[in-house]
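REQUEST
  id: r-88c1
  op: predict_structure
  target: Iron-sulfur cluster carrier protein
  payload:
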Amino acid sequence: MAITRDDVLKALSTVTVDRGGTTLPGSGRLSPVVIDPGNRVMFSILIDPSEAERFEPVRREAEGRVLALPGVSSVLASLTSERAPNAPPPGAAPRAPGPGAPPRQGNALPGVRHIVAVASGKGGVGKSTTACNLALGLSAQGLRVGLLDADIYGPSVPKLLGLSGKPRVLEGKTLEPMQAYGLKAMSIGFLIEPESAMIWRGPMVQSAITQMLRDVAWGELDVLVVDMPPGTGDAQLTMAQATPLSGAVIVSTPQDLALIDARRGVTMFRKVSVPILGVIENMATFICPNCGAASAIFGHGGARHEAERLEVPFLGEIPLTMAIRETSDAGRPVVATDPDGPQAKVYREIAQKLWGNLTGASAGRAAPRIVIE
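RESPONSE
  id: r-88c1
  status: 200
  body:
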């Protein structure tokens, strides 16, 4: 049975957001409703961060009303904030925040000590492989580590960890994370068919990331590593708004074209007051599998120099080797399957520096302040 937006809006019109009986569609808080070919319905509710607790029952009721419609296979509803602190609701006249207004704060993830975003300004720089092996490098230090694949358009974690199948649903709608090599993992790739094209607009991406953060039984973690999608758009802002990031790691190749986009990534995280924990130069040199000679096919040292120029930590260089490529494609990441090898040693050393920067950067730091221009 085909579901229409009118059907969804009719169901949502029975949900009120205040004592005056204002309906959700009439409140100006409802995002555009999206229905995919599988009759999955997605929408978000615009709130101020201070309203999160009050609007959570509204979100649950809205989700339930739509899920009760005949033919609906699933509902992805989330609370989202796209405005600066103390900004007026849609349609209201803007006003300046009062003096001494507190910074915007995301809601902490229960049981998770630190959340680290691994990001890049562009695709193709090996960000996902780096995030996976960094998570394993942190785990090798005896830390409890989770890996969240927030790259909605190109989820790689299932392939990198050799995982398949769907996560188990626990009490309510909470998902149990998948596990591999000592990591807890969650990805949109576990929830869709491998060849599905994620043709999603911003609100859908925001909803998916928020639910994978909030509706997963992560348990007690020292670090949750988040593999971000490339770029500086909705996903990054959603992460900064949904929960206080402890910091971000920027991955880049040495070439100038990649460094231009890496600068944008650093600038974006600085604008939302997320500390830069370090820059990593990936594919720093190509190691010939036959003779062992190193070739700087993408240049060399560009990310290090850029980190120095931007006055952010430089975490290290990762070579381009057949071993890293082969183990990644096989779902057997090199840090887990060859922990004493030279490639694993590089990742472990970078993870050790990252942990040092993370614990130092997070001490006494206020929750991030969001500034959207």
